[in-house]
Amino acid sequence: MTPHSPRGGSGMTIIVKSTTRIVTAFIMLFGTTIVLYGHVTPGGGFAGGVIIAAAFALIVLAFGKTLAGRFVTGTTASVWDSAAATAFLFVGVLGYLGGCFFWNFLRPPQSGRFTLFKLYSAGSILLSNTAIGMKVGMGLLGVFLALSVFRPRREEGEGHE
Amino acid sequence: MTNILPLVVALPLGAGFLSPLLGKSRRGESMAALLALGIGFANLAISVALFTTTEPLVYWIGFWNAPVGISMAVDGLTRLLLLTTSLVALAALVFSIAYMRRFTATGLYYSLLMLMVAGMNGVIVTGDLFNLYVFLEVASISSYGLVAFGTEHEELEASFKYLILGSIGSLFILLGIGILYNLTGQLNMALVADSLAGRGANRAMTLAAAFFLMGFGLKAALVPFHAWLPDAHPSAPAPISAMLSGVLIKASGVYALARIVFNVMGPSAAHADVLTALGALSMVVGVFLAVGQWDFKRLLGYHSISQMGYIVLAIGVAAQVMSPRGSGDEALAGLLLFGGLFHLFNHAAFKSLLFLSSGSLEQQAGTRMLKELGGMRRRMPVTAFCCRIGALSIAGVPPFNGFFSKLVIVVALALAGKWLLAALAVFVAMMTLVSFLKVQRTVLEGETPERLAGVREAPYPMQSGMLILATVCLLGGPLVVWLRGWLLDPAAASLLTRAAGYAALFSPRGGP
Asked: Are the C-beta atoms of B107 and B265 separated by less than 8 Å?
């Protein structure tokens, strides 16, 4: 990563930036699909969340963290992370109010077989997966942003800034 | 009654997730503290409510039964550990109100603390091996963060050391669980126990046992694996030191180890011998390392190793008695376990009390070096009173609680024919007394250094936190007979339930 590209802005070259502009939406869409279809196809909240976090990480790498910082900061990531975790627990607590902790209140197990490959067929698992996807995505992004705070230390008097 | 069981995990978990959402303003942080305090009280209420019945309770999450479902199981041992954890957690939370004022980002502090409580409660109530690992990691990872909370050089270094060694321990535990899963095809503890019971000893089980000893031994800071504790426990803020030394090493180390050794795998002779040896070694080495210490919190950390040695020694000899090679005398094993578990309860009370009073001294006097303190008896009467009770309890002076548990352990060791170990236990108790006489003399008695002439008593919340635990230490001694019948014998009995009996207690049942 070059800290100063020829155009004077931060981030990588224009090739990387243009590619990132095109693919990021698709990566996020793919991650979302993995999250939403987690209960009927391979994948799930964790896998999809990692992909979504990777899309954000790509933006930070390509455009530099100054620009990315305008959209998402460590605090935003942390707030969404906590909110998603609370939402996941809330799904469990709703089940608890319905009779049993993490009970599938939308579609009880005894109400018949699940339909394969059908999105709305597993009740509250979809909600749980969504919450986990958001939690993992924002959590990993938070870790990534926290690590990107560090920068190599310059020797005294050498810097050209 | 079964229905309140998930709340011991759900409530602290919810508070842990909500605290960062309350924001970093002064008001948000006070609300986080209030929320945590409320959960602390609720937790204690739930763990007391679980005593209304002596039956074993099982809760199947989401109405899913075994072998697929995850269960939460409560028996005597679980009740004892839950009560201990919530008592210490409450005292630490009350203490934190005033103590944490000098730190920033206390919202995150309460969040991590609540996650640690959720993890510990989860480890204690779960009836599923993999779930045990998950909760163990929840508790451990939040404790890594809490140790580094001061973010100074010393704290970060201690936290890093703790993180590396703790992860190695967790890895070994996971490998052990993997071996058992491969062997039995089950993760439910009762079903694993059932499946292992008919099998007899084999090499895979020996390997799993070795991994568990290594992993949980690391979590419990038994002697060859103790290097992280004297760095990690003193570096954390005082209420966290109290939680780590008071309950975390017990819930994630001794409790899990005892549960797996006794109920899941059944005590084998080799297992029991290693446990006894590690216990005796920790007891002796810990106290020798402590005697020469001049840093108050570090000294307490070394004493934790030594006192954990007592607990593990009693449990190890009980396992020897119950192993196929032993006499199988349930009354003797019960007495040993009674001693060990009573010491576990007592150690949680007095060690947390000592850590809280060290925090109070450190905050008011600005140092925790014994040589720089002095005459605090007159400056800080309440802290000094509590510190003295804690010191007398840990040193095993009658009529405080520590005396009775050490007495029971020594008598039971003698009854089991382990004269050498009994003598060693007495010797270590005397060394502990010497070490704490030094603390008393240098900190509480003597001349007040000029620099400390203006020191005042700690604020009320800190005093109340200490007084809660001091009351437990004071009452624990005289009430020993009552505590035994109500709290400790059921706990010992649940460990003595043989593997097949444990499976029968928690046999898959329930459902919608």
From this structure: no
